[in-house]
Structures are given as structure tokens and as C-alpha cells.
Write a structure and sequence with these properties.
The protein is α/β, with parallel strands linked by helices. Helix content is 47%, strand content 16%.
Length: 289
């Protein structure tokens, strides 16, 4: 199976045409045009129109393109949703998602308006309510295809200090990974605001990978390379996955449900994970062509 790598998802202000133009040349897997936090109230309409024109123009190649709309219940939300009905998007990003019923209604609204059925809803968990309801949110509508952590707002809500290890967020991060995995959707770690210390960002990317995240959301192009490297399977990972897959295929041909590889037991779960790693590798390689 082929998949969409989502190692690096870069937020770009939707009213900044120059930044959007540059995004077409960057190595990020996902471009998220932001209509919410990075756009002042007086610029919302202009940003919406600029985002629509940019998406329609295209030129993003294999990068996924998403738009973060203003939150459910906000003044600009309805206009945002109506604007992108016929836009060639991959996803609508919903900030501060909290109530599964609201997400379900939004998905139904998109269906009624005529959104392409392949356009997903990506939900942001960035409040205590969003984290507690993550399980239900991930299953609120068939369009839900990813859960994104909003760690900056979440840390503020929880009153936890900003530490490299993010100790105060560990429960929330793991809870959201569990919710996404149960729903079989991707989950992306929150942004790192420290642009002056790339070593801090590196640690956070590695931390996110160890917790099970598929990638990381970004606020600056300088963060793309590290995220891509950390969330890309290593040569050792790929080599071992190939050996596991070959050993498993041989075992299945013999009618066995288990096998040994270098003294380690291999069963179906290992073969499935090896297949996922190889599919991710193939999808990444396709982007390099």
C-alpha cells in the first residue's frame, strides 16, 4: 500500500503570497495555509481569498495542501468552509476541536456542500477538552484523517512550564497517539517555538518519534530538514524491514505462522510493521524523483 508521508507539516500565513510561493519549492510533506492564529481579524477575508487563489493555482506537486480554517463557532468559520468547496485541497484543519458532535456536523456540512469525498478533516487537540475527547473526535466522521497536537495552547491551558522534555504534556501526547492509532489515522506532534536553538527542536522531534507520532507541525522552513530526517526510516530500519518481510513470506509459503530471524521470533505483527516501514520508504522516495 502507498501512503502519504506527513513528516513535516509547515504552517504558512494564508495572507502572505510570497511565503506561499516559496512553499511550492520547500521539502516539506504538507503545507497548511493558516486562516486562524497568524491572521489578524481585519485580514481574514483577504487571507481567505489569497488561500483560495493559491490552492487553485496549484504547483505544490506531491505536497499535501491543507487550510486551517477559523474554529467552529468563530465569526469567520462558516465563510471559510463555504469558500473552499471546489478547491483542490487535501484537508481542512480544524483548530481547538473539542466536541465530537460539532465535528460530525461539520463533516455532514462538507458532504452537503459538495466537498470532494477525499478531502479530509484534520483535527487539532489543543485544549484539555480536546485531549480528553480525542478518542471520540478521531471517530466523529469518516472524513477525519489526522489528529494534530496544539502543544503551545495546551501548555498554556495546563499551566505547565516549557521544558525540553515536555514532562507536563506526556499524558496528553500519549493519549492522543493512542486515540489516533485506534482510529487508524495519522497523528502529528505540535510545533516547537524555539527557532534559536535547533538542538532543542531536534530533541523534541526525536521525542515525538519515540512516542509514536508520524511527523511534526512546523512554524518555519528552517525546521523542515530535521523533521524529515527524524521521521524518515533509517537505512538500518529499511534493511531490517526487508529481511523481516522476506523471512515472513518464506514462512507463509511453508504454512508456518512464526519464524526466526537472527535468533528473534517473527510473527504477523512484525511483518505488518515491516510492510508499513517499506511503504513509507517508497512514498518518500517517490517525492525525491
Amino acid at each position: 500500500m502507498m501512503m502519504n508521508p506527513r513528516r513535516s507539516a509547515l504552517f504558512m500565513p494564508a495572507h502572505n503570497e510570497r511565503a506561499i510561493s516559496k512553499a511550492r519549492t520547500l521539502d516539506c510533506d504538507v503545507v497548511i495555509l493558516d486562516l486562524e492564529d497568524s491572521v489578524a481579524p481585519d485580514s481574514k477575508k483577504t487571507a481567505r481569498e489569497t488561500a483560495k487563489a493559491s490552492v487553485t493555482e496549484g504547483g505544490f506537486d506531491l505536497r499535501e495542501i491543507a487550510v486551517r480554517v477559523n474554529g467552529i463557532g468563530r465569526d469567520w468559520h462558516t465563510d471559510d468552509i463555504q469558500e473552499f468547496v471546489d478547491a483542490p485541497l487535501d484537508a481542512i484543519v480544524v483548530p481547538k476541536a473539542e466536541l465530537p458532535a460539532d465535528v460530525g456536523r461539520l463533516g455532514e456540512q462538507m458532504d452537503t456542500l459538495g466537498y470532494d469525498p477525499d478531502i479530509e478533516l484534520w483535527l487539532m487537540a489543543e485544549t484539555p477538552g480536546g485531549v480528553f475527547n480525542a478518542r471520540e473526535l478521531c471517530q466523529a466522521h469518516p472524513r477525519v484523517g489526522a489528529l494534530l497536537l496544539g502543544t503551545s495552547d495546551l501548555a498554556k491551558c495546563l499551566r505547565v512550564p516549557a521544558t525540553i522534555g515536555r514532562d507536563g504534556l506526556l499524558y496528553a501526547l500519549s493519549h492522543c497517539v493512542l486515540a489516533a492509532r485506534e482510529a487508524n489515522i495519522d497523528v502529528l506532534d505540535g510545533v516547537c517555538l524555539d527557532l534559536a536553538n535547533p538542538e532543542v527542536y531536534q530533541v523534541q522531534c526525536e521525542h515525538g518519534r519515540e512516542l509514536g507520532f508520524d511527523g511534526k507541525t512546523l512554524i518555519h522552513p528552517s525546521q523542515i530538514a530535521i523533521a524529515n530526517k527524524v521521521f524518515t526510516p533509517s537505512d538500518d530500519d529499511i534493511g531490517r524491514a526487508k529481511k523481516i518481510r522476506a523471512a515472513w513470506d518464506d514462512a507463509r509459503r511453508r504454512g508456518d505462522g512464526l519464524c526466526l530471524l537472527n535468533g528473534q521470533l517473527i510473527e504477523k505483527l512484525h511483518a505488518e510493521e515491516a510492510s508499513r516501514i517499506l511503504s513509507l520508504h517508497e512514498a518518500i522516495q517517490e517525492r525525491l524523483v
